[in-house]
Design goal:
This protein is of the alpha/beta class. The chain contains nine helices and 16 strands. It has helices spanning 3-15, 24-35, 99-115, 135-141, 202-220, 258-279, 299-311, 329-335, 364-379, and strands at residues 42-47, 50-58, 66-72, 121-127, 153-160, 168-170, 173-176, 178-187, 191-192, 227-236, 242-243, 246-255, 282-288, 295-297, 317-319, 338-344. The strands form four sheets. An eight-stranded mixed sheet has the order 1-2-4-3-5-16-6-15, sandwiched between helices. Strands 10-12-8-13 form a four-stranded antiparallel sheet, with helices on one face. Bound molecules: the ligand CC(=O)N[C@@H](CCC[C@H](N)C(=O)O)C(=O)O. It catalyses: N-acetyl-(2S,6S)-2,6-diaminopimelate + H2O = (2S,6S)-2,6-diaminopimelate + acetate. The active site is at residues 72, 131. This is N-acetyldiaminopimelate deacetylase. It comes from Lacticaseibacillus parahuelsenbergensis.
Length: 383
Amino acid sequence: MKEAELIAIRRQLHQIPELALQEKETHAFLLKTVQSFPQTHLTIRTLPKLPTALLVKVHGQNPQRTIGYRTDIDALPVTEQTGLPFSSQHSGIAHACGHDIHMTVALGILDYFAHHQPKDNLIFFFQPAEESKNGGKLAYDMGTFTGDWHIDEFYGLHDRPDLPAGTISTRLGTLFAGTTEINVDLIGKSGHAALPQNANDMIVAAASFINQIQTVVARNVSPTDSAVITFGLMRAGTIRNVIAGRAYLEGTLRGFTQKQIDFLQQRIRDIGRGIAASFNCDVNVDLNQGGYYPVENNPQLTKDFIQYMQSDPAVTFAPTGPVMTGEDFGYLLNKIPGTMFWLGVNDPDSQLHAADFSPDESALAPGVTAVVYFLEHRMAENN
Ligand SMILES: CC(=O)N[C@@H](CCC[C@H](N)C(=O)O)C(=O)O
């Protein structure tokens, strides 16, 4: 596929961002595009119980194994502020995490193998719901990757704004953190602002909960380890002279190992129980990890990936450390060995999830080429 075609696809996808599990237009666009490729050795599959997902199998000439390639397809509840002429046409929703770039690269790779039949089988998984609702886990747990759709090794990328366009980067070990969504409901008693003795103020209880949570990473995690707990949403109260009888908080916790995540979850539950006792209120702590396991790259496959990318003169490879962003590809890599890697998209003044995030489209063609060449390498004899 020519660079201009990749850019045209990316711009169309960019204009129709959809939230997790609602990716109907995106699914229709992806299906139409895949149907426009030569169909001789393709099988297209949809999942009745996960209707926005799309799978495409490329049948190999002499298959010894099946290699999977995954892209996420959902967007974020962000109002785009890029000023691009092809900005989001869906109010309040944007591809602020670059999944339009991910999908376009996947279509570019698939188009290549639709025209050049591979030796082994390839399965492309266009996965809904990465940002929330763990679409990867949903698909895996419903038995999607069994029988003819079994995958031996799995690859996927994420775009990265602080790397030059087209640069490939990954590491041995954990690449992305495991995350857990935290929802906390504090239930007390509302009343008159002037009569606190007759009420039970949940703004004060929530403030205390938040303050105690700040001690977890600072005081319970070794200074040589990393973890983060952030509360990004807090709702309580209606007016200055009514004591709030309820407060609601949403946050996320992140760590690089499952052991550490389990520990952080336990501390949050403990603090919730402590607040309930000390404020004589109800505190319901709901923790949901879903499929957001730490993204742990398989040692053998990732060593081969890094060696290949470093040795190919057409590829710029950069080493990297782990990051605290999460990815539900972590769940799939927990079940199927594989490698997740970054693709540089050169937007260093912005960041993932920002309203002005605008990846550099010149990353598309080298991204496709690097993955196509790597997959050819994996399918060569002796690999
Ligand atoms: C790449 C990226 O930004 N991923 C998301 C994953 C969502 C995690 C989950 N919804 C949570 O907040 O725990 C991220 O926020 O890192």
